[in-house]
């Protein structure tokens, strides 16, 4: 039995998406910027995708800029705003951002920007009061991740965005894990910029988009032909973008039922594992991505998240670990550390993320295998009977 439970890392492209991408590659290979019929047909494909993604976010199509993925959308948001200023200013992010935000923020810091990293609660949430306190006269941008990929916590984005905007700062959110899984309406949410990625919603890797509220101005990161309203030069990757558009349309259609189904399966997995005494849920239990299950082993020696991932892989089950391995040495997850976990616990984070192909039988089997793996690896006192 092979069970993939790493849908936050990437999702298998839908068959309809693959078929459309193949057809696009074969028939619509024109350059969307060309003025002849081949170009016009490609431009039609491009704009249809823009409409489909706009519909997922309730955005106007001309507020979306296609990028090569979520990472580029995040970089464009942070660096594109920053480069609109001659002098370094103040940026606020959270201490649990994806590296696609944390790294450009550090780059700005090296260039003289002030960067505040907001603390989070034990469940990974940013407190609105902490944001209020961190705002300065020269705060130009606040960027807070919407759904945390490692621990699943959802942030109170409506409240945080309203605080930032009331102060006169721009507000960006990385919604890569949320788009297609929970409804997003950029007309209702107080956001100026919002990042999404294709391969988290059953589209292909290598496509993403940045929503830019009309009136917000960014400096492009790439110099070139001025595609994407002058904000992202380079000929668009049409097959990827076409696949992204269709994936967005299908995600929007299936979302209400699929979100509920995933929440049930997620809760089933949490309850099946509830009798393992040393498995502690990480992230917020209620304000949580619908497909996301995560744990750590706070009081155990010698067992890392990576080891568990390898052992589960041997049993045919794909999950992921939060800690990273640098030059053969394990380092604790910075996200769990920011949430107040000690280094030893922050080495043991694991994540199981569910998706369209996940069934109740997969969940039951996974819970049983995980308990067996833990029973083999942990002292007997820790593990409940399988
Ligand atoms: C929250 C978050 N932001 C950004 C990214 C990067 O997206 P992409 O892989 O499309 O560059 C990811 C991917 O793991 C993510 O989970």
From TrEMBL:
Documented EC number(s): 2.8.1.7
Pfam families named in the record: Aminotran_5
Keywords associated with the record: Iron, Iron-sulfur, Metal-binding, Pyridoxal phosphate, Transferase
The protein's required cofactors: pyridoxal 5'-phosphate
Domain Aminotransferase class V: 3-364
Catalytic activity: (sulfur carrier)-H + L-cysteine = (sulfur carrier)-SH + L-alanine
Gene3D superfamilies associated with the record: Aspartate Aminotransferase, domain 1, Type I PLP-dependent aspartate aminotransferase-like (Major domain)
GO MF, one example: metal ion binding
Broadest EC class assigned to this enzyme: transferase
Highest taxon of source: Bacteria
Annotated family: Belongs to the class-V pyridoxal-phosphate-dependent aminotransferase family. NifS/IscS subfamily.
Self-association and partners: Homodimer.
Classification via PANTHER family: CYSTEINE DESULFURASE (PTHR11601:SF34), CYSTEINE DESULFURYLASE FAMILY MEMBER (PTHR11601)
Protein name stated in the entry: cysteine desulfurase
């Amino acid at each position: 039995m092979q069970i993939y439970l790493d849908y936050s890392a990437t999702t298998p492209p839908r068959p309809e998406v693959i078929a459309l991408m193949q057809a696009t590659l074969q028939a619509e290979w024109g350059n969307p910027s060309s003025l002849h019929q081949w170009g016009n047909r490609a431009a039609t494909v491009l704009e249809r995708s823009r409409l489909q993604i706009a519909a997922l976010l309730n955005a106007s199509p001309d507020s979306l800029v296609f990028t090569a993925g979520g990472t580029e959308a995040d970089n464009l948001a942070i660096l594109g705003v920053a480069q609109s200023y001659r002098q370094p200013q103040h940026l606020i992010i959270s201490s649990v951002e994806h590296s696609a935000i944390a790294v450009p923020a550090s780059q700005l810091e090296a260039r003289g920007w002030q960067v505040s990293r907001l603390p989070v609660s034990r469940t990974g949430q940013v407190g609105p009061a902490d944001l209020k306190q961190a705002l300065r006269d020269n705060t130009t941008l606040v960027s807070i991740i919407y759904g945390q990929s490692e621990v699943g916590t959802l942030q109170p984005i409506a409240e945080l965005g309203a605080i930032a905007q009331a102060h006169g700062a721009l507000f960006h959110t990385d919604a890569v894990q949320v788009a297609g899984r929970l409804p997003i309406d950029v007309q209702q949410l107080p956001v100026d910029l919002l990042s999404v990625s294709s391969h988290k919603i059953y589209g292909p890797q290598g496509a993403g988009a940045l929503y830019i509220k009309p009136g917000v101005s960014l400096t492009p990161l790439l110099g070139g032909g001025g595609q994407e309203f002058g904000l992202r030069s380079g000929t668009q990757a049409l097959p990827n973008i076409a696949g992204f558009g269709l994936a967005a349309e299908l995600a929007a259609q299936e979302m209400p039922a699929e979100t509920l189904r995933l929440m049930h399966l997620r809760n089933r997995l949490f309850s099946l594992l509830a009798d393992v005494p040393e498995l502690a849920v990480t992230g917020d239990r209620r304000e949580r991505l619908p497909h996301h299950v995560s744990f750590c082993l706070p009081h155990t020696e010698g067992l890392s998240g990576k080891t568990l991932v390898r052992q589960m892989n041997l049993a045919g089950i794909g999950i992921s670990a939060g800690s990273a391995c640098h030059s053969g040495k394990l380092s604790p997850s910075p996200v769990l550390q920011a949430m107040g976990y000690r280094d030893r616990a922050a080495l043991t984070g694991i994540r199981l993320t569910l998706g369209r192909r996940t069934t109740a039988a997969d969940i039951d089997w996974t819970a049983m295998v995980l308990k067996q793996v833990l029973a083999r690896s942990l002292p007997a006192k820790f593990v409940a009977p399988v």
